[in-house]
Amino acid sequence: QAYVSYSNVAALTHLAAKPGWEITSTLDDIKIWTHEEGDLLSLKIEMQVKIPSHLAFSLLSDFTFRQQWDKHFLSCEVLQAVNEDEKIYYVTSPPMTGHKPRDFVILVSQRQPCKPSEPYVVAVKSVTLTSMPPSPEYCRSEILCAGFQIYSDSNSTCTVCYFNQVTSGVMPYLAANLTGSSKSIEDTALECIKFLE
């Protein structure tokens, strides 16, 4: 268990630190970056938010709030609170045209910064729980590596970076975006900023 939560945070930190991120879109408060490596596509969405970093951290690390701003989350419940910093959630997503709705069992690990220059971290990855086997109604999907890094810019502002490493499984959600308009990603980011502020 300790290894899984450590590797969850380490994977996100490693992804964030990779060289070769390319910026694809810039709005006032949102920048979208991509990183390609083999059949893995990673996204980074950087948002400028007018609230203190510790507040953004407490709002983003509780995934039961996620439906309020992310339309890809239909439902989200805590299956297991492993400890103060680790929770396992069960998430369902709405169906795409012609597909079954998807579901996920995810571990969310949160970490406070050790030094002021370091970010708050909320790392996410799929885990397997014997008590939650795949059901025929849903297409069980996997999150390889996703999450947030939250950097403090001042007492009242912060930069929130959302990362997601995408496999071919999550592609139907993003295919429409990446073919020309990243509208839905930007809409979700704007909703996230609105929710936080």
Structural account:
By secondary structure, the protein is an alpha+beta fold. It has a single domain, classed as START domain (Alpha-D-Glucose-1,6-Bisphosphate, Chain A, domain 4). It contains 4 helices and 10 strands; from the N terminus they run H-E-E-E-H-E-E-E-E-E-E-E-H-H. Strands 1, 2, 3, 4, 5, 6, 7, 8, 9 and 10 form a 10-stranded mixed beta sheet that branches. A hairpin with an 8-residue loop joins strand 6 (102-111) and strand 7. The model has no long low-confidence stretch (mean pLDDT 88).
Keywords:
ACO12 thioesterase; START-like_dom_sf; Alpha-D-Glucose-1,6-Bisphosphate, Chain A, domain 4; 39% strand; 10 strands; START_lipid-bd_dom; lipid binding; 4 helices; 197 residues; START_lipid_transfer; globular; alpha+beta; ten-stranded mixed β-sheet
Please name the CATH architecture: 2-Layer Sandwich
> Distance between termini?
34 Å
Uncertain residue segments: none
| CATH domain topology | Alpha-D-Glucose-1,6-Bisphosphate, Chain A, domain 4
The SSE string, one letter per element, is HEEEHEEEEEEEHH
Number of helices: 4
Shape summary: globular
The total number of structural domains is: 1
Helicity level, as a percent range?
Answer: 10-25%
Q: What is the tally of beta strands?
A: 10
User: What is the CATH first-level class name?
Assistant: Alpha Beta
- Which structural class matches the secondary elements? alpha+beta
Largest sheet: 10 strands, mixed
* CATH H level, superfamily name: START domain
Q: How much strand content do the residues show?
A: 35-45%
Let me know the average pLDDT. Answer: 88
Taking Cα atoms only, what radius of gyration do you get, to the nearest Å? 16 Å
Protein name: ACO12 thioesterase
Domain START: 18-166
GO molecular function: lipid binding
Organism: Lophotis ruficrista
